[in-house]
Structure formats: structure tokens, C-alpha cells
Write a structure and sequence with these properties.
Number of domains: 2
Radius of gyration: 20 Å
Structural class: mainly alpha
Order of helices and strands: HHHHH
Largest sheet: none
Number of strands: 0
Helix content: over 70%
């Protein structure tokens, strides 16, 4: 690995660690606020259907945020594991190197852009006509 590549890897490792720490802190804040779990006291405060709907929506939004943060943390941890194993930067599907600009934009990327598009098509089914 040449010096430029080592520098790129160090920058990407720093980006991954920063992203992981940010997600952990954001998750802690959500959990400390108790936003993702409706408490009995909060539910007793609901006085009409509109309040009930707003409370339910707030909990759904918080749950979605928690799920997003958990996925983000898992992606960063997997990328850091690949980095430690010397497999970082190679597409998990085709094995080709993932271009640096893609890694700089998405440091936790597991696939090159073409394989990611194919993966998303497979995951989400056929596109509507």
C-alpha cells in the first residue's frame, strides 16, 4: 500500500469512527429522552384522538430514528472490521475496488455503485412500470 493509499485509508477510518460516535451519541440522546418508548405517564396525558394520533406519530418517528441509527452503527462497525481485515474498499459482490470518491461520500459502502444499484433492485423488487 503506497503512502497516498495509506493516507486515504486513515482519513476514511477517521470518518467511519466519527460517524459511528455521532450515531452512538444521537442514539443515547433519543434513549435518554425516552422518545422511542411510550411511557404510561405520557399515554395518560392524551386527552383526545388528535393528541393520541400526535403521540403515536412521535413514537413512530423516534422508533424510525432509532432503527436508522442502529443500521448506521452496524454499517460503520462492519466497515471498520473490513478495514482491520484488509478487505476494506473491495466490493462485496464483484470484488472490484470501490472508487475513492464513492468511499469518501459513503465510507461504509460495501459495494461499488453498479452492484449497489443491482442489490437495491433485488431487495425492493421490480420497479413499477
Amino acid at each position: 500500500m503506497n503512502v497516498d493509499t495509506q493516507n486515504h485509508v486513515a482519513v476514511l477510518r477517521g470518518m467511519l469512527e466519527f460517524q459511528l460516535n455521532e450515531a452512538r451519541m444521537e442514539l443515547r440522546v433519543l434513549q435518554n429522552d425516552g422518545a422511542s418508548v411510550p411511557s404510561e405517564g405520557k399515554m395518560r396525558e392524551v386527552v383526545d384522538r388528535k393528541d393520541e394520533a400526535e403521540a403515536a406519530q412521535a413514537f413512530e418517528v423516534a422508533d424510525a430514528a432509532v432503527e436508522r441509527l442502529m443500521r448506521e452503527m452496524a454499517q460503520c462497525e462492519r466497515a471498520l472490521d473490513r478495514l482491520a481485515q484488509g478487505r476494506y474498499g473491495d466490493c462485496s459482490d464483484c470484488g472490484e475496488p470501490i472508487p475513492w470518491p464513492r468511499l469518501m461520500a459513503q465510507p461504509a459502502a460495501e459495494r461499488c455503485a453498479d452492484c449497489q444499484r443491482a442489490f437495491e433492485r433485488r431487495s425492493h423488487g421490480p420497479a413499477p412500470a
